[in-house]
Amino acid sequence: MSAIGRARKTAENIGLTSQFTDVCEVKPRLQGGTTERKDVHLDRMAAYLVAMNGDPNKPEVAAAQAYFAMQTRRAAVRSTSTRGACLDAMTVKYPH
Questions:
Q1: Which listed residue, of 36, 52, 80, 87, carries a Cα 20 to 30 Å from 1's Cα?
Q2: 89 — alpha (psi -120 to 50), left (phi > 0) or beta?
Q3: Sign, CA torsion 55/56/62/68
Q4: What is the pLDDT of residue 55?
């Protein structure tokens, strides 16, 4: 099964089946006739799932995995610092 197939299965198992959009593009050929190209449009979550299910030996997949790992780390740090700032702002200091 391909990385996209595994990612689709993951999305399906957690109820995110609308993340993958199959598209088919038909273009005319210079010699006459047409050529058909099938593709999949991904939203951010679908791209994440495909990257996590891809072969890390491929430079593009490794780069995507690193990108999503860095973004996850940034979000976690931002969440922690924002939470701390909110708690500091909510702390009431009573005079002694």
A1: 36
A2: alpha
A3: positive
A4: 94
